[in-house]
Amino acid sequence: MSDLDRAIEQLRACRLIPESQVRELCYKARELLIEEGNVVSVDAPVTICGDIHGQFHDLMELFRVGGDVPDTNYLFMGDFVDRGFYSLESFLLLLCLKVRYPDRITLIRGNHESRQITTVYGFYDECIRKYGSANVWRYCCEVFDYLALGAIVLGASSELEPTSNPALSSMPIDDSELETEVLNSRGEVTMSTYRARQRSSSDASTDSRNISPPRDISAAPGQAAAPLRSGAPGTGASGDGNGSAVTSRTGAVLCVHGGLSPLIDSVDKIRLIDRKQEVPHEGAMCDLLWSDPDEIEGWGLSPRGAGFLFGGDIVKQFNHLNGLSLVARAHQLVMEGYKEMFDGGIVTVWSAPNYCYRCGNVAAILELGEDTSGGGTVARSNGEYGRSNGVVTNNRVVSPGRRYRVFEAAAQDTRGMPAKKPVADYFLT
Amino acid sequence: MANGLVIRVLPTLEPSEPHTFVEPIKKIHESQDVSTFLTSKAYTNIMTWILQLNRSMFPVKLADDTIQTWPLNSDAIQYSAPVRQLQRLLSKLEDIIQEVPPDTGPRRFGNISFRRWCEVVESRASNLLRECLPADLLDKGSSNGGLTAETELKSYFLGSWGSGQRLDYGTGHELSFLAFLGGIWRLNGFPVAGPGVEERAIVVGVFHPYLELVRLLIKTYNLEPAGSHGVWGLDDHSFAPYIFGSAQLSPAITDNDLTPEEGSLENAPDPGGVANANIVQRERRTNLYFSAIGFIYDVKRGPFWEHSRMLFDISGIPAGWGKINKGMIKMYNAEVLSKFPVVQHFPFGSLFSWDRDPNAPLPPSTVHATSGPQARPVAPDSGPPSVAGARPMPGAGTQSVPPIGSTAAPWAGMRREGVPPSMPSGATRAPSALSDTSRMPPGPMAPTRAPWSAQPRPSHSQDGNADVHTKAPWAK
Q1: Is B468 exposed, middle or buried (CB count within 10 Å of its CB: 0-12, 13-18, 19+)?
Q2: Which of B308, B126, B154, B295 is nearest to B214 (CA)?
Q3: In a 10 Å sphere around its CB, with 0-12 CB exposed, 13-18 middle and 19+ buried, how is residue B374 labelled?
Q4: What is the pLDDT of residue A305?
């Protein structure tokens, strides 16, 4: 068993590894991350995760629900550290997994992966408390600077393979495909939505089945719980379904921690950023990590004091211009674990259940399946407009099928009470 | 007094002399301003007021050697008319919650209806204050045609309930309410009584109900912590109850005793009881410290030692509640009053004045006043100094950082003759490089806000109008 495997085993047991090993790990991680572009390309299938914030036991629950690395291909959208009690254990484990299985786990940067933020929100304090010096904090911050800013998921299937579920004995309406599915932590389907297969949007029929009504805040009161829609923005979805002139395709999915930036109108512009630095207070890199979608038009000032608010029109245009069907992001607590907005043009995924021990929220991860139909690969978007292998397309994109696995906070009672440690100087003299 | 012990109290205005009131405004715009604040008259008054209230909560050794304690349900504390009026004011504010039920629509965490609650309170503030405080107190200042005392009191009153914009509540709001009470004191709004008599009525009869109202607001509207560090902070929202509550359980004193710095009241619950739910449930009815701990139990799930590590560690202090009380005051001074993100919102008028206190020591360096808007991103390879325990300085790359241990506590060395009892002269220095606790503004589940932002808006906004949306260059 290699040192790395031993470290993984130790961290999985929520035990820290020695400082010297952290240093070595961070060095290896940087060597690996420096080779990644600002926007990492990831092939479906992939499981997309949101904020973790040091909730180690809940991260273990996430792996239980979503499958282990390397069996499952993971994409974590940042905010591994701060606020929770186990930022070190959580981040170091993810980093070990990254070094051990670089092609099976992708880590991108959140706004908390920053020197300034971690000194304010707890990770720095934790490093001092657990290692007795700031060395480990410094090693980790050096890794933060090399984390990618985003990822593009390619080759996701527009249709989900239905999860076998006794409650859904028969297939839904003819000629429709499973678009979204929500599962609880026991793997039981709690909600499914369907969309018409390759039809014009005007007569697209949708069907939503609520097996147990989820607490979905994305839907307005009185409306069916799931966002109903017939296709991605810009999906006119003509085509006769024979495949001869099928121009619709599953658009790429951009994953970023926060959101969009008024300085970034194409995915390529993200690639031009010099990312290997502390997160700036303003500018494109800052916005990608700090911005939030909001029910506004255009851009708005963010109450966070960094990044912007952006409306549905901004998302539609960005997706359209970049051949994207979906932006997946994290950064905001959502009580139901995920929240789709703007006709499904953007989704927030949140993976820290009962955030800060008190929010009472559930967490979610988003699974995108692989398109095995074979035909879709040609039309895969690489995030650039109007260029897919030289074939001019009319840029019709279909959103990928989306399977959300929702889970709750890990059981608490198994954790023992530690010894009280010497407290701050205030109480010592 | 015997032994020459002078208990300093917050000075009141001379009723017969004219006084010029001013509209309280913010003066702390960047982190350097915090050091100016720490030498201001306002700071001296705030610390004096808190120490005055704190001392009043220590049990008292009576002439017959019996000990009088001050539990929250004490019959021994008489409420004066102003205290009762303030209780009525608080219950009217509570009634407004009924008028503004929490919004049931889609939400993230903080409930948008709290904004409406704040608006209602603001619209009724003048009337509420008039119903509660005598007209000659509120109208003081009108004789010379200027602003009245009401202007200043209202500013602190309205700052006491959390932020309607950010849907959060923290120690800065708690400070504002203490200033509101201190302002009434300065205006002679409380009757003259023996040492500590009116003060403990204020703590038990007004401040505790205030905390209860705030807890109700936090639960009703899901207010986010405005000043916490998650598991590494003292408490998501409050600080003062840990000061006054530890005083309640400290050794008894006479009027001539210095405030104890260690030991506990006989039969006081062990500090370790905070980790025991049953003890917390029992003690929270009578004690402010346990009452605050009890609220944590109400809202948090998970092991206490994990979600409240600082409080858990403090509960292991062997030297008793007196020691905890002393530490809490030092910590409050460093982690609340010396923190830019907390005190930046404090407005200064005439009751709490920005003017320099002539008795204050030279401005100390601003080591505690970090994360101001001047802070710039640090270069990738620069980080906090490697000195163990030293605080990292956001922006360390652009400012010279004096050694933390060298900073004298702002209140050290002043008031030679009236040394606040709990502050042994010379022995009080700013905590050196604690392994770090509280600190900043946006707390746990609050959406993370940029610590370099003085105002909750992007620094790159082209104008100050939050309603104007910047258009993307390519947006139609």
Answers
A1: middle
A2: B295
A3: middle
A4: 83
Q: How many helices (H) and strands (E) does chain A have?
A: 10, 19
Q: What is the pLDDT of residue B227?
A: 57
Cα separation, B177 vs B197, in Å, equals 20
Instruction: Return the SS3 of B94.
Output: helix
- Residue B177 predicted with pLDDT over 50: yes
Domains of chain A with bracketed CATH: 3-159+254-373+398-412 (3.60.21.10)
Find, in chain A, the residue whose alpha carbon is nearest to that of B164: A303
Q: Which of A281, A294, A361 to mutate to test the interface with B (most CBs of B within 10 A)?
A: A281
What pLDDT does A414 receive? 54
* Chain B residue closest in CA terms to A339: B108
Question: CB-based contact (8 Å) between B434 and chain A?
Answer: yes
Place of tokens 């009053």: B337
A311-370 pLDDT tens trace:
999 999 999 999 999 999 999 999 999 999 999 999 999 999 999 998 899 999 999 999
Alpha carbon of residue B192 to chain centroid: 25
The backbone torsions φ and ψ at residue A167, rounded to the nearest 5 degrees and listed phi first, read: -70, -20
- Structure-token match 């965490």, residue found: B109
Interchain proximity B301–A354, CB inside 8 Å = yes
A304 touches chain B (CB under 8 A): yes
Which B residues, 38 through 77, put their C-beta within 8 Å of a C-beta on chain A? none
Query: Within a 10 A sphere around the Cβ of B359, how many other Cβ atoms?
Result: 12
Dihedral of the alpha carbons of A304, A306, A312, A318, in degrees to the nearest 10? -160
Is A112 designated active site?
yes
Best residue of B103, B107, B108 to probe chain A, by most A CBs closer than 10 Å? B108
Q: Does B426 touch chain A (CB under 8 A)?
A: no
Tell me if A123 sits within 8 A of A87, measured CB to CB. Answer: yes
Evaluate whether B207 touches B72 at the Cβ level (below 8 Å): no
Task: State whether residue B290 is helix, strand or coil.
Answer: helix
Q: Which residues of B touch A275 (CB under 8 A)?
A: none
Per-residue pLDDT, averaged over B148-166, amounts to 95
**Candidate from A138, A354, A417 with C-beta closest to B303:** A417
Residues B432 and B392: their CA atoms lie apart, in Å, by 13
Q: For position B453, what pLDDT does the model report?
A: 60
Q: What would the two tokens of residue A328 be? A: 């997946």
C-alpha closest to that of B339 among B366, B368, B367, B361: B368
pLDDT confidence tier of residue A221, bands split at 50, 70 and 90 = very low
Task: Count the neighbouring beta carbons within 10 Å of the beta carbon of residue A380.
Answer: 21
- Interface check for A281 against chain B (CB to CB < 8 A): the answer is yes
Residue B402 has pLDDT above 60, yes or no: no
Task: Tell me whether residues B328 and A306 touch, CB distance under 8 A.
Answer: no
Query: Could you give the 3-state DSSP secondary structure of residue A327?
Result: strand
| DSSP H stretches of helix in A38-103 | 56-66, 87-100
Lowest mean per-residue pLDDT among B208-217, B361-370, B407-416? B407-416
Write the DSSP symbol of residue B252.
P
Output the average pLDDT for chain A: 83
Residue pairs spanning A and B at CB distance below 8 A: 266
| 8 Å CB contact between A307 and A282 | no
Burial category of B466 from C-beta neighbours within 10 Å (exposed 0-12, middle 13-18, buried 19 and up): middle
Write out pLDDT tens, residues A368-399: 999 887 644 444 444 444 444 444 444 567 88
Q: pLDDT-based confidence at A421, cuts 50/70/90?
A: low
Could you tell me if B317 lies within 8 Å of chain A, comparing CB atoms? Answer: yes
**B306-321 per-position pLDDT tens digit:** 999 999 999 999 999 9
Residues A143-152 as b or e (16 or more Cβ within 10 Å = b)? bbbbbbbbbb
